[in-house]
Design brief:
- This protein is of the alpha/beta class and about 120 residues long.
- Helix content is about 45%, strand content about 15%.
- It contains five helices and four strands.
- It has helices spanning about 1-15, 35-40, 50-55, 60-75, 90-100; strands at about 25-30, 45-50, 80-85, 100-105.
- A four-stranded parallel β-sheet has the order 1-2-3-4.
- Strand 1 (about 25-30), helix 2 and strand 2 form a beta-alpha-beta unit.
- The longest helix is centred in the first third of the chain and has 16 residues, at about 1-15.
């Protein structure tokens, strides 16, 4: 279908840009329209796991299973995985145990202007 053609076009464009030092990271992994097959074809350098999936990962076993699976898929495809929206030490500890590669969220710093 048209989404397969688009994924192919995206994959070709990314392949053309990689030799020039350009890397691509998929934002909102786990909460977007991209299929796992397309994820395999497009080959991002990494993924950022959507914050609603991260919230409560320290206390919700179902969320742990889902986030753990997303991290595993990313790693199997040779990508790093960053968790977005990490707000508590308990969430960070659980995410570390699940094998996440990096964090983003208020626990680590609030967004602000770039230094001059």
């Amino acid at each position: 279908g048209s989404s397969t053609l688009l994924a192919g076009r995206i994959a070709r464009t990314m392949a053309e840009l990689r030799p020039h030092g350009v890397s691509f990271v998929l934002d909102d992994f786990g909460n977007g329209p991209l299929s796992l097959r397309q994820l395999q074809e497009i080959r991002f350098a990494g993924v950022k796991i959507d914050h609603p999936l991260v919230r409560g990962v320290d206390t919700l076993p179902e969320r742990q299973a889902l986030v753990g699976a997303l991290i595993s898929v990313a790693h199997r495809f040779g990508m790093f995985a960053v968790a977005k929206g990490v707000e508590t030490e308990a969430e960070a500890a659980q995410l570390r145990a699940l094998g996440v590669d990096g964090f983003q969220g208020s626990l680590f710093g609030r967004p602000g202007p770039l230094a001059q």
